[in-house]
């Protein structure tokens, strides 16, 4: 599968702190079921504690998510409001806003930068509804980037477009021709690209690469204006028979390496179990320090929702704390019933 080749290339190129890898089967030869599932497209009902202020759309504006590079070099989803032309596609407008030096530069929050090469234009964006596929055709300026930025560019394009409810996979073209590899460092893109390629890749300590699998989890960081925001990280971990449970265990273990990311859960929280039924994933957490009636941190609970929906593709999360669900978070959000993934996060005030 393409996404395993992409992980392997990232490791060999130094994007992951991995030792020398052996060729052939093993490390990235897991079955397709181990890939990262697309996030659900459903009615959402959870706001994020890391929303930098109450940001509301003006009349006629559309809210969309862009993946921009932060000052730490990591990609983060940023929610923006914009006005679409009569025949303008949201996905195309999102990509145009991600071009370095574009006319929309003043709409990008401080501390974040666009990742598409300066001068790039989106010649065409076609949507194939029955395949939930976006085919984006860039101008020749798309090839004008440093090889070190290649993976970030691919990740940003994929994760931005698949934030649209009608898109689950992407093909990249340039000047009217389909690309089978990226122009600079030949990253393979010969198959439809999904979120299975990961984002902000890293490897857990002591991972057995011959049986590893990716999980995507959400930590937080702080902008230059001291505004917190969520950052997704795809971490290679030892494969297990319950990847959703492993994802939350990794969330509890916190950030690794020297990146200035913040943990969203304390290490004394225990994941008792994670189960799936229909469109709901249920997580049972044990927190011996929790006192009944005490609000739980919204940042923690919403990171759990983001992480579980990202890794399972299910639309709702039921959180049980010490066997009960009759609690509220610090935003006064109740968790008695299953809650849905927020459609947009990190909405910075302009």
Helix content: 10-25%
For the record, the count of structural domains works out to 2
Gyration radius from CA atoms, angstroms: 20 Å
Number of helical segments with 4 or more residues: 5
Order of helices and strands: HEEHEEEHEEEEEHEEHEE
Mean pLDDT: 86
How much of the sequence lies in strands comes to 25-35%
Q: How many beta-strand elements? A: 14
Sheet with most strands: strand arrangement: 4-5-6-7
Distance between the termini: 41 Å
Structural class: alpha+beta
Shape: globular
Q: Give the biggest sheet.
A: 4 strands, mixed
Give the oligomeric state of the chains in this entry, treating copies of one chain as homo and distinct chains as hetero.
single chain
Unreliable sequence segments:
11-35, 41-54
Give the SSE layout.
Blueprint: H1 2-12, E1 61-70, E2 75-83, H2 90-97, E3 112-113, E4 122-128, E5 133-138, H3 150-161, E6 169-174, E7 177-178, E8 202-203, E9 212-222, E10 228-238, H4 243-253, E11 270-277, E12 280-286, H5 298-312, E13 316-321, E14 339-340
Parallel strand pairs: 5-6, 8-10, 12-13
Antiparallel strand pairs: 1-2, 1-3, 4-5, 6-7, 9-10, 11-12, 13-14
């Amino acid at each position: 599968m393409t996404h395993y080749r992409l992980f392997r290339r990232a490791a060999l190129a130094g994007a992951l702190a991995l030792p020398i890898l052996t060729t052939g089967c093993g490390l990235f030869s897991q079955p397709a079921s181990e890939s990262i599932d697309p996030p659900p497209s459903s009615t959402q009902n959870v706001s994020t504690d890391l929303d930098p202020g109450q940001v509301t759309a003006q009349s006629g504006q559309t809210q969309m998510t862009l993946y921009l590079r932060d000052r730490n070099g990591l990609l983060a989803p940023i929610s923006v409001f914009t006005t679409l032309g009569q025949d303008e596609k949201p996905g195309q407008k999102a990509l145009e806003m991600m071009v370095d030096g574009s006319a929309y530069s003043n709409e990008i929050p401080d501390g974040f930068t666009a990742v598409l090469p300066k001068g790039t234009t989106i010649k065409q964006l076609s949507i194939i509804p029955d395949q939930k596929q976006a085919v984006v055709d860039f101008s020749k300026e798309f090839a004008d980037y440093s090889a070190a930025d290649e993976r970030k560019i691919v990740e940003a394009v994929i994760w931005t477009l698949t934030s649209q409810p009608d898109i689950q996979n992407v093909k990249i073209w340039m000047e009217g021709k389909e690309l089978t590899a990226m122009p600079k460092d030949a990253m393979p893109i010969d198959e439809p690209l999904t979120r299975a390629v990961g984002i902000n890749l890293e490897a857990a300590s002591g991972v057995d690469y011959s049986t590893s699998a990716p999980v995507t989890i959400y930590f937080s960081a702080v902008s230059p204006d001291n505004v917190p925001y969520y950052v997704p990280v795809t971490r290679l971990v030892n494969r297990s028979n319950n990847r959703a449970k492993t994802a939350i265990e990794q969330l509890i273990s916190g950030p690794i390496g020297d990146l200035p990311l913040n943990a969203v859960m304390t290490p004394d929280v225990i994941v008792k179990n994670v189960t799936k039924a229909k469109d709901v994933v249920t997580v049972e957490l044990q927190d011996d320090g929790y006192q009944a009636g005490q609000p739980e941190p919204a940042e923690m609970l919403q990171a759990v929702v983001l992480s579980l929906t990202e890794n399972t593709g299910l639309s709702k999360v039921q959180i049980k704390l010490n066997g009960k669900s009759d609690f509220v978070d610090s935003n006064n959000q109740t968790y008695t019933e299953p809650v849905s993934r927020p459609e947009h996060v990190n909405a910075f005030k302009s």
